[in-house]
Amino acid sequence: MDKKEHIRSVVREGYGRIASGSGSCCGPESSCCGGAAATPHDVARSVGYTAEELAGIPAEANLGLSCGNAVALAALNPGETVVDLGAGAGFDVFQAGRKVGSAGRVIGVDMTPEMLARARRNLEVYRADTGLDNVEFRLGEIEHLPLADGSVDVIISNCVINLSPDKEQVWREMYRVLKPGGRVAISDLALRQPLPPAVVEMTEALTGCIAGAVLVEETERMARAAGFADVRLVSRDDYVAAMKEWQDPLFVKIIALLPAGANLADYVTSLAVQARKS
Question: Which residue from 10, 64, 9 is spatially nearest to 204, judged by alpha carbons?
């Protein structure tokens, strides 16, 4: 197995455990990157989701895996076709479905069968609650999207692209499937400076969205190299601060491996990325 396939295998297995409730993005702990003091609801509120937004989705869709509010960043309009890369249990998909309405369409793509099974169970709740039939989920890798060229108005993604072993290909795929003038709205973790090797080698840091993150400027370079224009990046440190406050188990392990006196926020930030296909 080559390195890229090994990373995909580790991520798929880790998130399969999360979907089935037998693990978390931090490893074997019962929480999902929020520590004992935080719930998935707490995590979502800390990165910008409102109580109203959270009340409007199936409860089982929120696994506490967000590092920003990609749906708000996208400023969706009724009738748009939206794709969520790494849709998980449908957390952002269901919120986007309410925004685009009956004339719109939202497609969630995920490579983990267990996540898709959970998302499709949540789909029945969404349909019953909203009366909308505008959402679907597809099995696929974000490096090879199961979508036609030029078929999408908006792409969203929430703390997922950092997990890909081939991020440049992800950016090329996003450009391929977007219509001219289509836009990208992504929340992800990014690096202010390279991580110590001991952190990069941690398996739980990979599935916890940190070991696979790249530098902020590298994210911009990849977006522009794929052809995107109007690339805008905004760092938000509230997510990292919240994880430290809640004594998130993964972050505690990582901080112990940093140089004396260093803070995790010196290395990691929550990054909002917007770009447009010309």
Answer: 10
User: Phi-psi region for residue 265, left (φ > 0), alpha (ψ -120 to 50) or beta?
Assistant: alpha
Please check whether residue 184 is in contact with residue 174, taking contact to mean a CB–CB distance below 8 angstroms: yes
Q: What is the pLDDT of residue 27?
A: 39
| Angstrom distance (rounded) from CA 216 to CA 72 | 21
Q: What is the CATH number of the domain that holds 267?
A: 3.40.50.150
CB contact at 8 A, 55 and 124: no
d(CA 15, CA 29): 13
* Rounded distance between C-alpha atoms, residue 12 and residue 45, angstroms: 26
- 151: its two tokens: 């078929």
Could you report the per-residue pLDDT of 65-115, keeping only the tens digit for each?
A: 999 999 999 999 999 999 999 999 999 999 999 999 999 999 999 999 999
Range of the domain at 182: 3-277
Number of domains in the chain: 1
